[in-house]
Design goal:
Its main location: membrane. This protein is an alpha+beta fold. About 55% of the residues lie in helices and about 5% in strands. Strands 2-3-1-6 form a four-stranded antiparallel sheet. It has a two-stranded antiparallel ribbon with strand order 4-5. Strands 7-8 form a two-stranded antiparallel sheet. The radius of gyration is 32 Å and the shape is globular.
Length: about 775
């Protein structure tokens, strides 16, 4: 090898590179009596082996040059090779001079002055005033210290707290970031061919893994130990990742300290969203239960159930027979659960909920950065069973196509050749979301707004490719929409949770099985930290986590009028999601590199778009799919108790219709098939409702936006205090950046200096 091995006493290993070298297979000796086919096969094998050896040699040259170059960049190297020379570990660490140089170049934050922790979060203060015990609170030891900070400058080293302690001045995550940047910039081949960086070498196969080390095991020791003596990973496992902590606040300060701001922001946002789901779930459950309690007062359902053979309906298909409306009595009763005045109220509530939630997150996200940077039987008819079955098949196709769309979006984004990683990630995220939006929501949109709209009327049915257009079932489109939403949303959540629980364990088992021979060769020696971490699964990032929750947000807002229990199921899912994700990051993933983040990025723009779309979709859903407005018009014009409403919504088939001259169908038409005056009156009411609904909601949104400042006053004070301290510490002309408006904006970004997540964002 062309590099020198270092073994520096007291040096912290910041990063590990791993590669595997497999021994060559012995070629089979040439024997007598071999046929031509065998000789040809042997020749092909030899050629393949030759190509493989050339490839291995190329990778070895790249790897050696890369290691030479990172050593030239100042990193300290220590090679570790087990007894069986197949797996090679190269431990990397950055000395003080390298840390200081790159800390200034990367504008890392340096501490100026400690500041006190906030004593309580919002819920804790409210519970204390009400003299209610706070079961969500939990004492987590070794809470990180908050600091006012500014950009690091080597020339002002003496102004920063703890600068004399070279061993502990830079945090572990800062050291990881610096080494990661060096690895990302180091050339291993020709720069004009973009042969740069450890990530490219990983893709090429020169390295098998590159990761920072976990800080010890996550399991608690067998002997009794003081909580203050636990390592950071043990604290996160014991106080956060265990299922018994599902109702406790998340220790976001510790998450930020161990995993960095980007991952901490995800868990802060997920906790904040889950907390806001609680009132939505309570109201939605109350609306659903109120529908059960008032089901007996549903006059139209009573008329349907007591009609006997009074309403003879036209066949639903070409081969079907006429049917009596009383046959759908159970469906009419159950349908009331999803289409009563309470669901309309809930739609309005959820529209306000969505926009208010985002406004308050918009306020809290810079503050967080400043401080851290029931199922009912719906009948047993063949049509209903077919609808449920088709929904399940649809779910399977959705999940399958989701993988295809993600791969397509990745390839399209690569072709665009974005200049920065942020631009690449935003473009990729947007494409995947558009594909998945169509993938998941096209079926509910079809049922809600298109199915049954172009059927025509008896004798003049609409057709497509010679087939009669599809109509909704006897119970109406809304109950079919509720079935679709239940199966797609709940099915997706269950499948995702099973995957998140099982797949990492399967991957870890395969990794351990592949390394079993090496362990055996070590003769029962205790594996080192880097060997244990290599057995873990590579961290897959936060994209899939965000995508799952954002799609869930769409289900609970866009179609909530048809499925008021959606927030409840989302809440239950998210309680499990937090612990599943926490367990993955703490116990099953290799430690990711800590990344800075300004906010949740393009996901917030997508959430805002979904909240606005939900207002419009719910307005159309209430106006055109629900029976709320037809019932309201009938109450106003004819009968306030809705007596005769069923007959009001039915029309007689034209006399020319073959099946029956007395058959009826649901429409506002006369006997000639023309629309009646009531149809046009109802259309005007529907359009007026849509305009009024969206104007009211969006007007209230503007008021909320005006009332809730984007940057809280407490944060403004902290920014001023930090700016003042920075001005004192770095009082040079070249530091004018610190007092400029751009610097102030930076304080509300991921580069903000105070390093503790706000306790108001804590969520179990």
């Amino acid at each position: 090898m062309l590099y020198i091995s270092y073994s520096v006493y007291g040096c912290v290993s910041d990063y590990v590179l791993v590669w595997e070298i497999k021994s060559r297979r012995k070629r089979r000796a040439r024997g007598k009596g071999r046929g031509e086919a065998e000789d040809e096969e042997e020749l092909q094998a030899a050629q393949e082996e030759s190509r493989s050896e050339k490839r291995k040699a190329q990778l070895a040259r790249w790897r050696d040059r890369f290691i030479q170059n990172i050593q030239s960049a100042g990193l300290l190297l220590e090679k570790v090779q087990p007894a069986k020379k197949t797996i090679h570990y190269l431990k990397l660490s950055a000395p003080w001079d390298v840390l200081v140089y790159y800390a200034e170049e990367l504008c890392l934050r340096a501490p100026l002055q400690a500041q006190p922790h906030p004593d309580f979060n919002t819920s804790a203060r409210v519970l204390q005033k009400l003299w209610v015990p706070n079961v969500m609170a939990d004492f987590v030891p070794n809470r990180p210290v908050d600091y006012y900070t500014c950009a690091f400058r080597k020339s002002k080293m003496e102004k920063f707290l703890g600068s004399e302690d070279h061993q502990n001045y830079f945090s572990i995550t800062q050291r990881h970031r610096i080494v990661y940047e060096i690895l990302a910039r180091t050339v291993y081949g020709k720069r004009k061919h973009a042969e740069v960086g450890a990530a490219r070498l990983l893709n090429e196969g020169a390295f098998k893994a590159a990761f920072p080390l976990h800080e010890g095991p996550f399991e608690l020791p067998d002997y009794e130990i003081s909580p203050d003596q636990l390592n950071k990973r043990q604290i996160l496992y014991h106080y956060w990742a265990r299922w018994s902590k599902w109702y406790k606040y998340q220790p976001l300060d510790h998450i930020r300290e161990y995993f960095g701001e980007k991952i901490a922001l995800y868990f802060a946002w997920l906790g904040f969203y889950t907390a806001w789901l609680l009132p939505a779930a309570i109201v939605g459950t109350f609306v659903f239960v109120s529908g059960i309690m008032t089901m007996g007062s549903n006059t139209p359902a009573k008329e349907i159930c007591e009609s006997g053979g009074h309403y003879l309906m036209c066949p639903l298909c070409e081969t079907c027979k006429p049917w009596n409306m009383s046959d759908i009595c159970p469906m009419a009763q159950v349908g009331y659960l999803f289409d009563h005045p309470g669901t309309v109220f809930f739609s309005v509530f959820m529209s306000f909920w969505a926009v208010t939630f985002l406004e308050y997150w918009k306020q809290l996200s810079p503050e967080s950065l400043d401080l851290s940077v029931m199922m009912y039987e719906t009948g047993s008819s063949a049509g209903n069973i077919a609808n449920i079955s088709s929904s399940m098949v649809n779910l399977a196709l959705i999940l399958l196509m989701g993988q295809v769309y993600t791969a397509l979006a990745e390839q399209l984004t690569k072709w665009e050749m974005h200049r920065t990683q942020t631009q690449y990630e935003d473009a990729f995220t947007f494409k995947v979301f558009i594909f998945q939006f169509v993938n998941f929501y096209s079926s509910p949109f079809y049922v809600a707004f298109f199915k049954g709209r172009f059927v025509g009327y008896p004798g003049h049915y609409g057709t497509l490719f010679g087939m009669r257009n599809e109509d909704c079932g006897p119970g109406g489109c809304l109950i079919e929409l509720a079935e679709q939403l239940f199966i797609i949303m709940i099915g997706k959540q269950l499948i995702n949770n099973v995957q998140e629980f099982v797949i990492p364990k399967v991957k870890a088992w395969r990794q351990k099985k592949a390394l079993a021979s090496v362990k055996k060769a070590q003769g029962g020696l205790e594996p080192q930290r880097w060997e244990q971490d290599y057995e873990l699964v590579a961290c897959e990032g936060l994209f899939d986590e965000y995508l799952e929750i954002v799609l869930q947000f769409g289900f609970i807002t866009i179609f909530v009028a048809a499925f008021p229990l959606a927030p409840l199921f989302a809440l239950l899912n998210n309680w499990a999601e937090v612990r599943l994700d926490a367990h993955k990051f703490v116990c099953e993933y290799r430690r990711p590199v800590a990344e800075r983040a300004q906010n949740i990025g393009v996901w917030f723009i997508i959430l805002e778009a979904l909240s606005h779309v939900s207002v419009i979709v719910n307005a159309f859903l209430i106006a055109f799919t629900s029976d709320f407005l037809p019932r309201l018009l009938y109450r106003y014009k004819f009968n306030s108790d809705l007596h005769g409403y069923v007959n009001f919504t039915l029309a007689y088939a034209p006399p020319s219709y073959n099946y029956s001259s007395h058959g009826m169908y649901k429409a506002f038409r006369d006997e000639n098939g023309s629309y009646t005056l009531v149809y046009w009156e109802l259309l005007a009411v529907r359009l007026g409702f849509i305009i009024a609904f969206e104007h009211v909601v969006f007007s209230v949104l503007r008021v909320i936006d005006w009332m809730v400042p984007d940057v809280p006053e407490s944060l403004e004070l902290k920014v001023k205090r930090e700016r003042y301290l920075a001005k004192q510490a770095l009082a040079d002309n070249q530091e004018a950046l610190l007092v400029s408006g751009s610097w102030r904006a930076a304080q509300v970004s991921a580069h903000s200096g105070v390093h503790t997540l706000h306790s108001r964002l804590y969520e179990a």
